[in-house]
Amino acid sequence: VAAVPITFLSDYGYSDEFAGVCRAVIARISPDATVIDLTHGIPRHTIGVGATVLASALPFAPPGVHLAVIDPEVGTARRGIAVRVKTEARVLVGPDNGLLWPAIDRLGGAVMAVDVSLSPFRLEPISATFQGRDVFAPVAAHIARGAGLAEAGDEIDLGSLVRLSPSEPSIGAGRVVAHVVLIDRYGNASLDLDDSHLPRTGLRLGRRLAVEASRSEHEAVFTPTFADVEPGELILFEDSHRHLALAVNRGSAAEVLDLEVGDEVTLRAET
Amino acid sequence: VAAVPITFLSDYGYSDEFAGVCRAVIARISPDATVIDLTHGIPRHTIGVGATVLASALPFAPPGVHLAVIDPEVGTARRGIAVRVKTEARVLVGPDNGLLWPAIDRLGGAVMAVDVSLSPFRLEPISATFQGRDVFAPVAAHIARGAGLAEAGDEIDLGSLVRLSPSEPSIGAGRVVAHVVLIDRYGNASLDLDDSHLPRTGLRLGRRLAVEASRSEHEAVFTPTFADVEPGELILFEDSHRHLALAVNRGSAAEVLDLEVGDEVTLRAET
Amino acid sequence: VAAVPITFLSDYGYSDEFAGVCRAVIARISPDATVIDLTHGIPRHTIGVGATVLASALPFAPPGVHLAVIDPEVGTARRGIAVRVKTEARVLVGPDNGLLWPAIDRLGGAVMAVDVSLSPFRLEPISATFQGRDVFAPVAAHIARGAGLAEAGDEIDLGSLVRLSPSEPSIGAGRVVAHVVLIDRYGNASLDLDDSHLPRTGLRLGRRLAVEASRSEHEAVFTPTFADVEPGELILFEDSHRHLALAVNRGSAAEVLDLEVGDEVTLRAET
After folding, report:
1. C16 and B225 in contact by Cβ < 8 A?
2. Which of A12, A227, A238, C185 is the most buried (most CB within 10 A)?
3. What is the C-alpha separation between A111 and A113, in angstroms, rounded?
4. What is the mean pLDDT of residues B36-58?
5. pLDDT, tens digit, for every residue of A86-123?
6. CB B225: neighbour CB atoms within 10 A?
């Protein structure tokens, strides 16, 4: 039987061999599994950013195994998990710190979960600080080539999985207070707002709005894409994650508005 | 039938999941296609740099599909295209903004082109800002697994493709005014000069020359490789793109000469 | 016959197409060979860092061909080599500048070596500055698809291979003077110390120690993992390379101690 593909996301970066060694481990166990690197550039230890990116990316991936490692508490009692979800019987593998939760949710919810911390598939001697290599990659590789979840670890209660509580915008009285959840390399800033929030906000496509961030105020227009405005102008738009987001055409909204992930942004529809 | 390989170049960078999601889309449509990432590190929105790198890299690639996305005008009326070239019937896929043109030219010229902006292969709902994921990757993946160009979009006139006018050196009266077309991570600066220009320049292998850049003047020697000179010395050499280029042995010509892509450099053969 | 996998490590970085073009060359020659990128983020021209990472990573990789290119003397008389080692008959390919030596040693030692500088597998015209593309990648690809070492070049004496002399700690009189051999993206600093040195050092797991670096002194504890201490505290631990290493929980030891590769660090067990 051919192996299913494995997607791989982490905060390992590109300057070290961490992601590469995990790929090597996978290739040793499951030579036929295609590994699809989603990104290893998630900022260090930012579980929330990784969780948002993972949930947004996985619906575009083929069914298979989804390996994700952002693991600031490696070496502690935090569990490692493998979780089967409803959508296409995919399996997510990683630390039980909330990283996988939004993706599990997006993919129909968990159907079965096992604790892989002491998986028989782990490499020995296990490192206290690099369980991507020693636990998660081998577990993912064995599942990709057909091992059952029950072989990878002991079943655990689905209700015990660690959940992330995503940030929530506060909406009312003609203004929206939202939070930055992602900033991409172009300086576009995704907010914790999507089109389900729109009716209550007074924001309308084609209309202008005021954006307050880092104690300064800016004018923007709510428009489908960058190129609808002049270079240097600020827009609100629906980004490819289907979040509402701020961008500057040919520039960087994060720089112009001095934004970081987690920052508050206030939007007010202009009349 | 096995799928042909897909090469992939973009300015998506490595900190986000953009390139990874495109690979995921390809794997979902065409699981057997090998994806060869050329680079995703082209500086943001620099179509000229991407075009030069692509044209230089593709002759080394296996025949197949060549996906390239640097797309500052995404979401506007700019077209998406798929173009079959003469050499090995390869197909290039990307925005019609000149990015593909030098590679098309290098690979024997265009034989057939289609507008894929509304391709039946596109993903729905299409994003206004991420057509790499929603248009170009799916089109490339379907063609890699055997779809014909005519299935990917409506045929367009070959004469209507957007062309880049490459920069040209000006040569005469004992001096050459050239332009920087690429700067690599080692700080080597490729110029819009190749050996076809040499006879008119007075520059000769083994001879010294004066290099004027950013209002300062430097001594250099025209030599086959870095290691012919002492660390810290400036050379003119034929680089791996077959451009004449400036380098500093164990150092950075871009730093020493304070160069950016597009800058003018004046070379004068010494007598 | 299916091709064996090829691992690939270099200092080519990610901003240019260098690693990508090598992958393209491999795919053209050996379409079935899986290429496993270990990393291309080794700091420019740091043969020692690359050698350490390579030796540490390869035991996790599947048997096959191991391509590694950090090549500051490209274009000089330095040789290119392909070396078969005892462990699993793997073949290492790269410049003969010491980069491969610690990995050869780790994998049971060399069994046969050939000079590939003028390999019949090289691409023509050969570039003076990019032999990763023109020599090493094609040699690796041909060997991966079954070519014998003797076809790749002329046999050379195993005793003639360039060896790296690794740095050595000096241990005595209640103090250890060690050297930084690697710094990772988390700012963890690996030392030229492993558990074989421990008995002579007086350092004991669970005990405190003094760390002197860059003329300042710091308190640390020798512990299995980061999470054993509070954020911001300095630890000595055994890292995933099985080196003793310095780390700051949720911080950067390299920053706190102002460390670079090659720096001296003095450790003193506290009583």
Report:
1. no
2. A12
3. 7
4. 96
5. 999 999 999 999 999 999 999 999 999 999 999 999 99
6. 19
Residue C51 to residue C101: CA distance in whole angstroms: 7
Which residue is closest to B183 within chain C, CA to CA?
Answer: C16
> Are C38 and A20 an interchain contact pair (Cβ–Cβ within 8 Å)?
yes
Contact predicate C192/C168, CB 8 Å: yes
For B98-157, what is each residue's pLDDT tens digit?
999 999 999 999 999 999 999 999 999 888 889 999 999 999 999 999 999 999 999 999
* Residue A16 Cα distances to B21, C6, C14, C27, angstroms: 22, 18, 12, 24
Q: Which residues pair with B172 in a beta bridge?
A: B175
Residues of chain C in contact with residue B62, where contact means CB-CB under 8 angstroms, are 24, 27-28, 31
Burial of B210 (0-12, 13-18, 19+ CB in 10 A): middle
Quote the mean pLDDT of chain A: 94
Closest partner residue to A17 (CB to CB) among C14, C39, C186 is: C39
> What does the pLDDT average to over B12-30?
97
pLDDT of residue C1: 57
The alpha carbon of residue C98 and the mean position of all alpha carbons in its chain are separated, in whole angstroms, by 10
Edge-to-edge strand order for the sheet containing B154-155?
B35-39, B6-10, B65-69, B91-95, B80-85, B110-115, B154-155
Contacting B with CB below 8 Å, chain A residues are: 5, 7, 9, 14, 34, 36-43, 53, 56-57, 60-62, 184-186, 224-228, 237-240, 250
**Residues 6+ away with beta carbon under 8 Å from C120:** C151, C152
* Residues β-bridged to residue A6: A35, A65
**What pLDDT, in 10s, does the model give residues C260-269?**
999 999 999 9
Which are the contacts of A71, defined by CB distance < 8 A and separation ≥ 6? A78, A94, A95, A97, A131, A132
Do B17 and A38 lie within an 8 Å CB cutoff?
Answer: yes
Q: Specify the pairing of strand A65-69 against strand A91-95.
A: parallel
Contact in structure between A222 and A201 (CB atoms under 8 Å): no
- Report residue B19's pLDDT band, with 50, 70 and 90 as the boundaries: very high
Report yes or no: C204 and C223 within 8 Å, Cβ to Cβ: no
Tell me the C-alpha distance between B265 and B182, whole Å: 13
Number of Cβ within 10 Å of residue B260's Cβ equals: 11
The pLDDT assigned to A128 comes to: 84
